[in-house]
Design brief:
The protein has about 290 residues and is α+β, with helices and mostly antiparallel strands. Helices cover about 25% and strands about 30% of the residues. It folds into 3 domains: about 130 residues, Maf protein (Alpha-Beta Complex); about 70 residues; about 50 residues, no CATH class. It binds zinc ion (2 copies).
Length: about 290
Amino acid sequence: MTPRPSRSREGPEHPYDGRVGVLATKHAKLPLIAPPLAAAVGLRVDAVAVDTDSLGTFTGDVPRRAPALDTAIAKARLGMSAAGRSLGLASEGSIGPDPAVPFVNADREIVVLVDDDNGFVVWESHTSWDIIVASTSAGADEDLSQFLSSADFPNHRLIVRPNSGALHPIYKGISSIDALATAVSECAAVATDGLARVETDMRAHACPSRRGVIAAAADRLAARIATLCPSCGAPGWGHVDVVLGVPCAWCGTEVARPRAEIAGCPACEYREDRPLIPPDTRVDPGECSYCNP
Ligand SMILES: [Zn+2]
Ligand SMILES: [Zn+2]
C-alpha cells in the first residue's frame, strides 16, 4: 500500500479526501498539478490522454476560439467524459505581449477543477514575465547560433515551418541541431520566399519556462480547494472580486481604488467583505477627478 501524502490541513475530513479527479493532458502536466492537490486535500489526480488540440493549439494550426478559462473548462470536460468521472481538472496558458508592459511577454496559466456532482467550477491562475518566446526566419545553412541562445535551445524546443506560401511541413518539438538543420532546409525549400520560420514550441512539455508557472497556479488552486465555504462547506472559498471607492480628502468624491476584497463560494451565494484599508482612509485630492480634473 502506498503511504498517503502528508498534509498541512488540520480538522475534519475534506470532501475530496480519497476521491479521484482526472486531468485532461497530452503534455505531461500531471507531475505539476497532482502533487499539490494530493498534499492539500488528499485528492488523487489521474491523467487521461485526450486530444485537446481541437480546442486550439499553441502551434497555431488550430486557432483557439474561446477565452482561456472556457477552454480549460472544456478540456476538463473532455477528460471527464473520456474517463467517466464527475471530477475533472485541466490547465490552459495564454502567452503573448503584456498590454501593461511594452516589449515583455507574459504567461498566464489557469488551472480549473470542475465538480459535476455539486455543479461548480473552481479555478486559479498565475502570471509570469519570465517566459521564453522567440522567433526568426532563416534560409538553409544560415547561422542561427545567436537566436538559439536567446531561445534557450535545446532546453526549450523549437517549431519549424515554411515562412510564406506553403503551410506544411510543420516540425514540432525539435531538440537537436541536426533535426533543426533538416527542418529548416525542407521548409525553406517549399516557402515562396525561400525561408523557414523558426519559433519556440510553447507546448508545456517542450517549454520549461511554462512548467513552473503551471505548478504555481496548481499550488494556488490546491490552497483554494483546501478552504471550505463557511456557509455550505463546499471546497474553493476565496477571492472573487474587489470593492472600489475611497473618498477624496477634500470633497469626498469616491476615487476608483480598492476598498475591500470580496471572498465567495463557487457553490452557493454566500459572500464576505474583507476591508483592505482602514475605514477612515482618504485619497490625495491630486487623484480626484473633481478636485484635479
Ligand atoms: Zn458555499
Ligand atoms: Zn476631490
